[in-house]
Write a structure and sequence with these properties.
Blueprint: H1 5-11, H2 21-26, E1 31-35, E2 38-41, E3 46-49, H3 52-55, H4 64-76, H5 88-98, E4 105-111, H6 114-131, E5 139-143, H7 152-157, H8 161-164, E6 174-177, H9 190-208, E7 213-218, H10 232-245, E8 248-252, H11 266-270, E9 276-279, E10 291-296, H12 323-338, H13 341-363, E11 366-372, E12 375-380, H14 391-403, E13 406-407, E14 409-411, E15 414-417, H15 425-448
Parallel strand pairs: 3-13, 5-6, 5-7, 7-8, 8-9
Antiparallel strand pairs: 1-2, 2-3, 4-10, 9-10, 11-12, 12-15, 14-15
Helix pairs in contact: 4-12, 5-12, 9-10, 13-15, 14-15
């Protein structure tokens, strides 16, 4: 696309996410508007948004129910005083969110996004154990390749080395195990591979001393590792390990929450209830920054006491429980529930799975199609007979996808999609056609480069 002189000058005065300006300027991309399943750039070219912005726009862009809720609340009150009061719309949001969570997870605190929700969960866990008479439980065990956010605590829980290295040393008390996908080439059976990976959590907790471990934190589906999708048994094992060692289980559902896996939360899809859920992204369908930490109701007892006891949750943000965000979040949850969009996610996933498997048969470079519901990932391999990665394909696909008008997450060795749950069968067909065309063009480029 073209780049105006004004935009070029202004780009010199900002930072771009995870890329240098020089790289961006080779293929500039400035979006101007969005509606439904599409973005338009400043040249007027239309792009199919196959990833909901970044796993965010679960209802698509500019959804009428979200828009109406935002404007109605804007006419009423845009901000409430967080140190003095709680707004009625914030309490409405608590009621609505608690009404769709698994088990007795109905202790809700909203924030401005997923990183804040994870940060709150980490602090909540440590304070919970301190005020429960076990102050030595402070460590967290998570997975390599997992991503939990950009703030310091959330970053420390993440297992994405190169993203963390510039900010080292990170806070102490964060331990890692390998995800099951990194054992695939060593353990032939996928179920056994998952059992081995789950057992690693038990081994680490035992060796560290359970009295020092506060919680396990994992994404039910790990995007940054390539849509890592463990077995149901894997999560049952994590639940049993946590129960046996008196360790909290935290699900980071910032990507997986709100219908995308075929249930309101992936915890329900996998049949395991954690002690805390962190949410964000789709909670507002992208209309406003919004996230929430949701904990077991009985855990709140550790934070009760008179004023002198200072047993309240010692954490807050200026924009936590923001009235506009709460109004939007309530509308999104109600639309996902009322429109049956979790069930729709299953249909979308079936359609994409079929097309992506056909893609593999056609080109012979697909090692595996992973995911659940509308979250799908496709891993590349160099040829049909081996398991060698194919990073040249991913680098080419990142460009050919945009050239063909489709926005999706592309890593050198895999791509991921998660379209809005409002997409029709025909629109999913359009998306898959665009991906097919982009893959063919990327393979041609790789072949031409030798």
């Amino acid at each position: 696309m073209g780049l105006s002189e004004r935009h070029r000058l202004l780009l010199d005065h900002t930072f771009l996410d995870y890329q240098p300006l020089a790289s961006f300027l080779q293929h500039p991309f400035i979006v101007e508007r969005a509606d439904g399943l599409y973005y338009w750039d400043t040249d007027g070219k239309r792009y199919f948004d196959a990833i909901g912005g970044i796993f965010v726009a679960v209802l698509g862009h500019n959804h009428p129910r979200v828009r109406e809720a935002l404007l109605r609340q804007l006419d009423t009150m845009a901000f409430s005083p967080p140190m003095h009061a709680v707004s009625d719309v914030a309490l409405d949001f608590v009621e609505t969110l608690a009404g769709v969570t698994p088990g007795n997870l109905d202790f809700v605190k909203s924030f401005s996004g997923g990183s804040e929700s994870v940060e709150a969960a980490l602090k909540f866990s440590r304070q919970y154990w301190k005020q429960s008479g076990r102050p030595g439980k402070y460590k967290f065990v998570s997975r390599y390749q997992g991503y939990h956010g950009g703030t310091m605590g959330a970053m420390a829980a993440s297992g994405t080395g190169p993203r963390k290295t510039p900010f080292a040393p990170e806070p102490s008390g964060f331990l890692k195990v390998l995800p099951p996908t990194l054992y695939r080439d060593r353990i032939d059976d996928w179920d056994e591979c998952n059992r081995f990976a789950a057992q690693a959590f038990d081994d680490v907790i035992t060796q560290e001393d359970p009295e020092t471990v506060a919680a396990i934190i994992v994404e039910p589906i790990g995007n940054t590792g390539g849509v890592v999708t463990p077995t149901d048994e894997y999560f049952r094992m994590l639940r049993e390990i946590c129960d046996r060692h008196d360790v909290l289980l935290i699900f980071d559902e910032i990507i997986t929450g709100f219908g995308k896996t075929g249930a309101m939360f992936a915890a329900q899809s996998f049949g395991v209830t954690p002690d805390i859920i962190c949410s964000g992204k789709s909670l507002s369908s992208g209309a406003l920054p919004l996230g929430a930490m949701i904990a077991r109701q009985d855990m709140a007892a550790a934070f009760e006491g008179d004023v002198d006891a200072q047993r309240f949750f010692a954490h807050g943000h200026t924009f936590a429980s923001h009235p506009l965000g709460c109004a939007v979040g309530k509308a999104v949850i109600e639309e996902v529930r009322d429109a049956g969009l979790a069930e729709r996610a299953l249909r979308i996933g079936e359609l994409m799975q079929e097309r992506f498997e056909a893609l593999g048969r056609r080109f012979g470079v697909v090692r595996e199609v992973r995911g659940r519901g509308a979250i799908r990932g496709v891993e590349f391999q160099r040829d049909a007979d081996g398991v060698e990665p194919f990073p040249e394909l991913g680098r080419a696909l990142k460009l050919t996808a945009l050239e063909n008008g489709v926005i999706m997450r592309v890593d050198p060795n895999w791509f991921a999609v998660c379209p809005a749950l409002t997409a029709t069968d025909d629109e999913i067909g359009e998306l898959c056609d665009l991906i097919d065309r982009s893959m063919a063009a990327a393979l041609e480029q790789v072949a031409a480069a030798g």
